[in-house]
Fold this sequence. Notes:
Blueprint (H helix, E strand, L loop, with lengths): L2 E5 L2 E4 L4 E8 L7 E7 L6 E6 L6 E3 L7 E6 L4 E6 L8 E8 L13 E2 L3 E6 L1
Parallel strand pairs: 2-11
Antiparallel strand pairs: 1-3, 3-8, 4-5, 4-9, 5-6, 7-8, 9-10, 9-11
Amino acid sequence: QVQLVESGGGLVQAGGSLRLSCAASGRPVSTYAMGWFRQAPGTERLFVATISRNGASTYYADSVKGRFTISRDNAKNTVYLQMNSLKPEDTAVYYCAADSSPYGSSAKYDYERWGQGTQVTVSS
Length: 124
């Protein structure tokens, strides 16, 4: 089974940028489609972005389209989430997740493995 560890979260002002990383171990990340989700206090975990196994296909939530970019480097066993033009409403714990299907999904129940999350806080 793959293990996932997120990093790169922190405190940033509105309009700023952060890049999250998700490092995989135990099994090649190339065998998974990958996704990013986020969860604010008292709310459900919501889809942010997904990327196919080979990186050719991506899909985003409307709330982040045009501001966030998901990418992967299978040689480094790492998936990234570049977040630009951050807004206070982007504040949440961000989780990466692995899906053994080729193309990924926006449904959290399709993902089999999850990281522990990294906190992103955007101040106004």
